[in-house]
Design a protein that fits this description.
The chain is an alpha+beta fold. About 30% of the residues lie in helices and about 25% in strands.
Length: about 230
C-alpha cells in the first residue's frame, strides 16, 4: 500500500509479506536485518522522539519486560529519527533517573536505530504525513523467524502501547504456528483455544472421532484445552 503527499511517499507493508531488509546504525552497533536475527521472532517498534514523556514510559516498559520477550525467543529493536548520541544520552537518563511501573533502572539491552535519514521508517510506513513529516508514529511490527510480518500495530503519538498485549500476540502466534489452532477473543495463555471449522466431510468425521477432546457448541465452533496443557 502506498500513500502519497506533496513531500513524502510512504510505503506500508502488509501482513504476510517479507519484512523489508535493512542495515542500520543503532545504540548497539550496526545491525543487518534479517540476517542478524535468523530464527528469531522480532518486535520492531518506533517512537516519535527521544526525551518525551510517553516514549520514555514505553522504553522503560520494554526494558522491564526484555527478559520475558527473550524467553519467548523474541528480540526487541527500537527506532526513531533521533541521532545515536541523542539515543545514548536519553537511555542513560532513563536508567539513572526514571522509575516507572516494573522498571527500576534495569540496563536497556535492546538496540535503538538512529534513523536520521528515515530510511527504515519509510520502508515500514512509520512516517505518516497526516501525523508528521518528521517524526515516526508509534508502530509495532511483530516479525516471525522466517522474516514474515505477522502483526502490525499503529498508535497515535499521545497514546502509550499495551505491552502485555504485545507479549500476548507473540504467544498466540507461536501457539498457532506449532499446533495449528486459533485463539479466541480475549484469549490469555493457558485458556482454551479454537479449532478451525472442518473444510470437508473427512475433517468433520475426524472431529467427531475426537469429540472427547473437544467442546463443540456447533459444528463450526469447537474449543479445546490449550495444547500446552494436554498430556497427549
Amino acid at each position: 500500500m502506498t500513500k502519497q503527499s506533496a513531500t513524502l511517499t510512504t510505503t506500508i507493508p502488509v501482513l504476510g509479506e517479507d519484512a523489508p531488509a535493512f542495515v542500520a546504525q543503532t545504540t548497539g552497533g550496526t545491525i543487518r536485518f534479517p540476517q542478524d536475527y535468523k530464527g528469531k521472532w522480532v518486535i520492531l517498534f518506533s517512537h516519535p522522539a527521544d526525551f518525551t514523556p510517553v516514549c520514555t514510559s514505553e522504553i522503560a516498559a520494554f526494558a522491564a519486560m526484555q527478559d520475558e520477550f527473550a524467553a519467548l525467543g523474541a528480540e526487541l529493536i527500537g527506532l526513531s529519527v533521533d541521532s545515536s548520541s541523542a539515543h545514548v544520552a536519553w537511555l542513560k537518563e532513563i536508567e539513572d533517573k526514571i522509575r516507572f511501573g516494573a522498571y527500576n533502572g534495569q540496563p536497556i539491552r535492546f538496540p535503538i536505530i538512529a534513523d536520521v535519514k528515515m530510511d527504515v521508517a519509510k520502508q515500514y510506513g512509520m512516517i505518516q504525513p497526516s501525523m508528521s513529516d518528521t517524526k515516526t508514529v508509534r508502530a509495532v511490527f511483530i516479525i516471525d523467524p522466517k522474516a514474515k510480518i505477522r502483526t502490525i500495530l499503529y498508535y497515535p503519538q499521545s497514546t502509550g502501547r499495551n505491552f502485555a498485549e504485545i507479549k500476548r500476540i507473540v504467544q498466540a502466534l507461536q501457539l498457532t504456528d506449532v499446533y495449528g489452532v486459533a485463539t479466541p477473543a480475549d484469549w490469555q495463555p493457558g485458556a482454551d483455544v479454537l479449532v478451525a471449522a472442518p473444510a470437508d466431510m473427512q475433517e468433520l468425521k475426524q472431529r467427531m472421532a475426537d469429540k472427547d477432546k473437544l467442546d463443540c457448541q456447533d459444528w463450526f465452533f469447537c474449543t479445546r484445552r490449550s495444547p500446552e496443557y494436554l498430556n497427549s
